[in-house]
Design goal:
This protein is mainly alpha-helical. The chain has helices spanning 2-39, 48-58, 60-86, 88-93, 95-131, 136-150, 156-165, 171-204.
Length: 211
C-alpha cells in the first residue's frame, strides 16, 4: 500500500513539474510574440506581457531572477499538492523526485538565461561596431543585407538584437531603424512586383487547350 502511494505521488510530482514548466514556456512564447509584434512595428512595449518580455531580455540577471521566482513557485506548488494528496511523511519520502524535477527545471532556466546573455552580447557588439563608425547607416545596411542574403539560415538573435537596438533614441538606433524601414519597403515592392508579374503571365497564357 505504501509502495503504491509513493508511486502515485512520484507521478503527481513529475506531472506537476511538467505542467508548471509548460505553463511557464507558453507564457514566455506568448510574451515573445507580442513583444516581437511591437518592436517590428517600431513601437514601445504596448502591453504587460510585452513589457515583461522586454524586462526579461534586457539583462542576463533579469532572466535569472525570473527563473528563481519560477523555481520558488514550482517548489511551493509541488509541496502543497503532495502534502494535500499524501501527507507530510509521504512527501518527505518522495523528496528525491522533487529534487529531480527541480534540477530539470533549473537546467531549463539556465538555458533560457544563457540565450538572453547571447542576445545581450549581440546587442553590445552591434552597438560598438556602429557607434564607432562615421558611416553608421552604411554599417547598419551592411549588417541587414548580410542577414537578408543568408535567408533562413541567418542568425535570428542578430535580427532580434537589431530590432531591439532600433528602439533606442540615439544615433545608432535611428540608423538601424532607417535601414530596417528602407529594406522593408524594398522587400514589399519586390513582393508586389513578383505578384503582378505572375498575374500578367497568367493573363498572357490565354485559354487552355480544353476551352
Amino acid at each position: 500500500m505504501q509502495q503504491a502511494l509513493f508511486s502515485a505521488l512520484s507521478f503527481v510530482i513529475f506531472f506537476q513539474g511538467i505542467f508548471m514548466q509548460g505553463v511557464w514556456l507558453y507564457l514566455g512564447r506568448r510574451a515573445r510574440d507580442v513583444y516581437l509584434g511591437d518592436i517590428m512595428q517600431f513601437r514601445a512595449p504596448s502591453s504587460f506581457m510585452s513589457r515583461y518580455y522586454n524586462w526579461r531580455v534586457t539583462r542576463f540577471i533579469n532572466a535569472l531572477i525570473e527563473g528563481v521566482v519560477f523555481l520558488v513557485i514550482l517548489l511551493g506548488s509541488v509541496i502543497l499538492l503532495s502534502v494535500a494528496i499524501a501527507g507530510v511523511s509521504a512527501f518527505m519520502g518522495a523528496s528525491f523526485y522533487v529534487v529531480v524535477v527541480m534540477f530539470l527545471s533549473f537546467v531549463s532556466i539556465v538555458q533560457m538565461a544563457w540565450r538572453v546573455k547571447e542576445i545581450n552580447e549581440r546587442e553590445n557588439g552591434i552597438m560598438a561596431s556602429i557607434s564607432t563608425s562615421a558611416d553608421k547607416i552604411g554599417i547598419a545596411r551592411e549588417l541587414v543585407e548580410n542577414l537578408m542574403i543568408q535567408g533562413s539560415i541567418g542568425d535570428g538573435r542578430v535580427w532580434f538584437a537589431l530590432y531591439r537596438l532600433a528602439q533606442r533614441p540615439n544615433q545608432v538606433g535611428w540608423a538601424i531603424r532607417d535601414v530596417l524601414i528602407e529594406k522593408g519597403k524594398e522587400m514589399r515592392e519586390m513582393f508586389q512586383y513578383s505578384n503582378s508579374d505572375g498575374d500578367q503571365a497568367a493573363r498572357d497564357e490565354g485559354p487552355g487547350i480544353g476551352s
